[in-house]
Amino acid sequence: MKLLVYLVAVLGGAALSMEGAIAGELGKTVGKLESSYYIFIMGTLILGLTTLFAGKGDLPYVLKAPKWNLTGGLLGTVYLTILVISIPFIGIGVSMVAVIVGQMITSMIIEHFGWLGSSKIKINKERVMAIVCMGIALVLIF
Amino acid sequence: MSLLMVILTLIGGLTLSAQSSINGTLSKKTGTFETAFLTFATGAMILTIVVVFFGQGNILSVFDVPKWQLTCALFGASYLFLTVLAVPKIGVTAANISTVIGQLFASMIIDHFGWFGSKEVPFDLSRWIGVAFMLLALYFIFKGNKKTAA
């Protein structure tokens, strides 16, 4: 059952690649910032409709939630802006590897200390092995 | 300069991890669709301001491009929704590593066939071995998490 959730996340990653590849083409015509903007506007509409019809949660809770819980959108745009700045300098390959390395290391640190409301999972032998394997994979792929 | 850019991009990875963790926390009370919606809605608000001041392209040309190029929004929304779904169940590290694996695998397929105007890069032996190592990484994360849960 848990394994299915891993598959869901793998699918999410595949969707991210499709997004990037297609948005790159769109960006050539409309502009880089504008293509991100289009994605956020259209995504808001799609998710707004799905929330209305399929949402089972409690949207008004966002008014009561601690404010730092609401920074997901801001962080997403910070990420996009950083990529727009860095890719012309260091290229897409190095940028992707740096993002992935940064992501893997910080997510382990976040969980190790249980920051940002995550359940505490200490760094263990398996996690270090996983990072090493990912490092080797990145070298082989790029 | 280059080193500075690499460090900046590492910080980019950090913002993604923080986003996944924060969204995972919010979704426990707000719901999965609701959290994905809020992330997109606030992101759209911020980008509206950014595009007005710094945009150099032409947003209105979205009406003229081939329609398939507009599907990127659907993929973007799917990514965020699926991540918000996965993080509370398996944790942010496992979710991130799984996402990265899906991302790399799909990029290699896109490269192999040269889809979406990308340069054709064949799926060669070293890429296959890379895939094997990624699966091994996934196995380690899965095993490590199982041990912690037990």
TrEMBL record, chain A:
Top-rank lineage group of the source organism: Bacteria
Record keywords, A-Z: Membrane, Transmembrane, Transmembrane helix
GO cellular component: a single term: plasma membrane
Transmembrane segments: 37-56, 68-90
Leader sequence residues: none
InterPro entries, alphabetized: YdcZ (IPR006750)
A Pfam family per the record: DMT_YdcZ
Protein's UniProt name: DMT family transporter
TrEMBL record, chain B:
Transmembrane spans: 36-56, 68-87, 93-113, 125-142
Keyword DNA damage in record: no
Pfam families recorded: DMT_YdcZ (PF04657)
Superkingdom to which the source organism belongs: Bacteria
Annotated keywords: Membrane, Transmembrane, Transmembrane helix
Record bears the keyword Transmembrane helix: yes
GO cellular component: plasma membrane
PANTHER family: INNER MEMBRANE PROTEIN YDCZ
Name this protein carries in UniProt: DMT family transporter
